[in-house]
Amino acid sequence: MRRSFSVRSADTPAKLQLATAVTVLAGIALAIGGWYAIDRRDTAIDDAAAAARQLIQVQDVRVQVVQADSLASNAYLQAGQEDPAVRAAYDERLGEASSGLVAAARAATLEDAATLESVNRDLAAYAGLVEQARANNRQGFPVGAAYQREARQLASELVVSLRTVEQSTRQRVEDSMERASRSSWLLVLTAVAALAVLLLGSWWLARRWRRLINVPIALAALITFVVLVFGVGVNASAMSTARDAVRGELSAADLVAQARAAGFDARASEALTLINRGNGAAYEQQWQLSASVVELALEQACDRHDVGCGTLDDHLAYADGHRLVRELDDAGDWDGAVRLATGGALDGVDPSRDFERFAASSSTHLAEQSAAAGAAFDEADDSLGRLRVLVVVAGLAVAVLGAAGYAQRLREYR
Amino acid sequence: MTPRTAPQRSRPLTVRFAAALVALGSLVVAACGGGAALPDEVQGSIAEATTTPTTAAPECTPEQQQQSAVATYAPLDPLPEPGAMPAGSTMAEIVERGQLRVGVSADTLLFGARDPLSGVIEGVDIEVLRLVARALFGEGGEDRIVYRVITYAQRLPALEAGDVDLVAHTMTINCRRWLRIGFSSVYYQAGQKVLVKTDSGFDSVDDLVAAGARVCAPEGSTNIDEIQKPKYAGIVVVPKPDITDCLVAMQRGQADATTGDDTVLAGFAVQDPSVELVGEAFTEEPYGIGANRDDVDLVQFVNGVLDRARTDGELDRIMRTWLVDTGALDEADVPPVPAPDHSRPLP
């Protein structure tokens, strides 16, 4: 082997040893730093997915509560002719709301968990009030209507609490996504540093020994380059998959769930306008408020996500029926209004049928969109999991190949 | 943070590589940029609520207060036969329309309450209106009644706006209300009492004062005004939007007692065996049928119908059916049907 005149031969093995150490360290740094960066993003996306599931869960509880209230109000209207199926559906909704609350509390932050637990306690009190309303009503006691009003009041307080939990959960989704988007720089930094170390090393070896290429080190550089390009690509695509899920399916699910909760709320308000004959004006206002939430939410879902356009039509049809119910009641035909509201069609107008359609179609859309959001999060999670393994293997390979490359030269000094 | 730590060497290869790294760096930045926000929670809205302008309630002058509030116009004599109402009268208008529109309560047991099983509204107030309908339309006239269930607060406005012809809604006749509507003669003499738990040991409103008890009363009612007078200082007033909410409050242990008209409270005692009316009435609440202020002839007609019902015992029968037979009151506790005062001069 010929030696360069410019470098004192005594220094060269030390320099080679130093280069070996730096390269091995760069490889290990790539393995650890890359793993850490990907893991952080993966964890953040997992958190976002968990928060998204939680959001859907809490919204589901809200829908169950409002639905139970709507069923209880309608059953109250029918008094003696109460349909046992309606009663069973009410019990089922309450049961699901309660178990949903327990599940949601487990996955909630401390503060939210406390709120959810108090909601669960109030839910039991709510059920008690409904029982009182029902018992009084069946005996022909008008105080039952006051219990039903009281129950309704409690249900609306529950809904307010659930909405604050929803809002904080939405914030958790957004914060986790923000965290995910900030956590890939360490991968790029370690990969670029490793590449720089390998390229500098190659350049030095090429100049010092007038060899064009050191195969192991060149291979290590190639691997690092591939990790850099591939890693950044996969990382970015996982991020954008998750982000699209939030902006797309999860947003659509969120809107449909809000529309659903507001829809059942409107239906319960409708029954209350009739239960409180003459004292129902406040509930008609509540109906209008809820109906406007349904329409706004579904319009957004339809315009932005092409989801729930048919559901909006179902709701508009129901709203027409509701207006006829109000017209009948206002004109003094209370019995006709109750018949129409509780399942009897009039001249082809059947608000119960249209409301059932709205309920069924919104339920389908909600299930589809939340499943799609969950699948997208899973996909992001899977690809990051694979990348994490790949980066660790690549980093170790760089360390080994780097050491092997310099060892070829170092051998000449033994 | 954008890593741009590529070795800056003069060699073209390195330069190009550095440029590629910079490009990669910007790709990373691009991939990271922008959060993923969920849509804001949808906020609903409703059309501006039509609020009726609230004019200050007119006050009676001392002169007006001199006149007895229960004094009403002399009855039509003779009372026109059904189907033969004087031309141009309010009654003729109603008969021609074929509907008697009335404002009632649907949750005041014994006076105006809907039976949840049959859906029929029934009670003392309803029976009195049925008498009027039969006098207007003849036999079967009660089927011509169109019931509009209204709140306490809607009683005067519904008459003023002409939405209903008559209101029978446990409505106390008083001077201030005479300024806005017309009243028939008294058909029931109610009074404000207290309702307590049967085992509470409270026997009168004075006991409640002494004990500093929590007493529920409907917001904005004459009942709550009364109980807030200095002579009842010591009572903790529990206001509720509706008198029926007071029964709920008592049953849920949020109040020890409720104060209101004995008629309404008697209905509560029917609905809940664990409560009872105690003590003497401490106000007078004479109930009358309300009509639009301008429908003087209709008030005179109703007074004629009431007079006849007093004479032939129909009013007694109604009170017995609804207040005694239901077990709400003992026969001895039913106040006698008050004698009419027809001394109010026609306007």
Automatic annotation (TrEMBL), chain A:
Regions that span the bilayer: 16-38, 185-206, 212-234, 387-407
Transmembrane helix recorded as keyword: yes
Keyword terms: Membrane, Transmembrane, Transmembrane helix
Protein name per Swiss-Prot or TrEMBL: Unannotated protein
UniProtKB/TrEMBL annotation, chain B:
Keywords: Signal, Transport
Protein name: Unannotated protein
Record-annotated Solute-binding protein family 3/N-terminal domain positions: 99-325
Signal peptide: none
Protein family according to the UniProt entry: Belongs to the bacterial solute-binding protein 3 family.
GO terms under cellular component: extracellular region; outer membrane-bounded periplasmic space
GO biological process: amino acid transport
PROSITE patterns found in the cross-reference section: PROKAR_LIPOPROTEIN (PS51257)
InterPro entries on file: Bact_solute-bind_prot3, Solute-binding_3/MltF_N
A Pfam family per the record: SBP_bac_3
Species name: freshwater metagenome
